[in-house]
Amino acid sequence: MATLQRDLNKKSGFDSPEQQAYLNLAYTHAKLSAAFARLFKDHGLSEAAYNILRVLRGVRKHPENGRDALPCGEIGGRLIARVPDVTRLIDRLVKAGLVDRIRGEADRRVVLARITTKGLALLRKLDEPVLELHAQTLGHLTRSELKQFNALMEKARQIQASTRSP
Amino acid sequence: MATLQRDLNKKSGFDSPEQQAYLNLAYTHAKLSAAFARLFKDHGLSEAAYNILRVLRGVRKHPENGRDALPCGEIGGRLIARVPDVTRLIDRLVKAGLVDRIRGEADRRVVLARITTKGLALLRKLDEPVLELHAQTLGHLTRSELKQFNALMEKARQIQASTRSP
DNA sequence: GCCGAATATTTGTTGACACAATTAATGTTT
DNA sequence: AAACATTAATTGTGTCAACAAATATTCGGC
């Protein structure tokens, strides 16, 4: 019996091999992401907030179109998981002093979010623990296995392009 | 440049190969789970609610310890992703007529949740679309790739056993 | 049998999620 | 220039998530 099935105390098997793969993916993701969520939470951040700060740090260090900040609407597109309520998330980061809001000058509709020095400091503090956690969680995979892993993840996403069309 | 990096409009590379793997996992999971979330939502269910109903159906069909229902506290342990507020989720399912609550007789602290015939009917209705979506999303992987996929998922979870100790 | 500890679930509460509606600003057409 | 369409962000609102406290019941030691 596969580990997943035993872990879930599941009597019958899986309905299809694809379902088994999906559940394996979901289970693995749940376990790994829980570890990261705990780490971020210890520093007062949700995973989404952490990822947004990461994105904003990238732009602060490597300005785009002469800007070291990002429009709110563009932030969502830089994230792996969909964040539906960017405005309020930025609200919270602004309140925590980690992000500044800047009204655009060329287009007054646009609001730019820029990471503060406080936000940069928090990220710096988290850089090492995050790397360590990555090594802890997946460091036992060989380089060849990681390569395989990435290739399978990319392939698993491919048919999704057509599923995406509503 | 890897697809993931390009999709995220990410300028710099990844900090470590393990991080790249984790982000690939998270991105793939986000895409696939979004498709399933949409399907369940079309039938008035969240993914957690669907999974709970699946678990309860299993026990209804194959009773355990002479019981065709599960204690609330045990339901959480049968799920892939942690569900923190089982009580209220069961509340909602009871309200929707999909689950019944039964007070335990041997131990009055225990509350058993049992799927109703309405709940069974809803699941039956979803069985085929779910299988189809599985085939749609991962059906392009060969049998050998799925086998590899599962093996890597299991291996990725292994070191987690030690990470889990608080 | 009594009392304190442990257990199972529920309730209280705050914060986050997620979709729709609203507001302000810009772009396009007449 | 005015009217209409589109865009970007925000607000409104109900639902869900997540932790701590409360409540009821059972267990274990004396």
- Low-confidence segments of chain A, ≥5 residues, pLDDT <50? 161-166
Average pLDDT figure of chain A: 88
What is the general shape of chain A? elongated
CATH topology of the domain at 48-123 in chain A: Arc Repressor Mutant, subunit A
Radius of gyration of chain A: 19 Å
Order of helices and strands of chain A: HHHEHHEEHHH
Largest beta-sheet details of chain A: 3 strands, antiparallel
- What topology, given as strand order, has the largest sheet of chain A? 1-3-2
Percent of residues in beta strands of chain A: 5-15%
Oligomer: homodimer
| CATH homologous superfamily caption of the domain at 48-123 in chain A | Winged helix-like DNA-binding domain superfamily/Winged helix DNA-binding domain
Distance between the termini of chain A: 38 Å
Number of contiguous helices of chain A: 8
What is the CATH class designation of the domain at 48-123 in chain A? Mainly Alpha
Q: Give the beta-strand count of chain A.
A: 3
Q: Tell me the helix content of chain A.
A: 55-70%
**CATH 2nd-level architecture of the domain at 48-123 in chain A:** Orthogonal Bundle
Question: How do the helices and strands line up, and which of them pair or pack?
Answer:
Two copies of one chain form a homodimer.
Chain A (H helix, E strand, L loop, with lengths): L2 H5 L9 H25 L5 H15 L8 E2 H4 L10 H10 L3 E5 L7 E5 L1 H22 L4 H16 L1 H4 L3
Helix pairs in contact in A: 2-6
Chain A binds a DNA duplex (30 and 30 nucleotides) through helix 5.
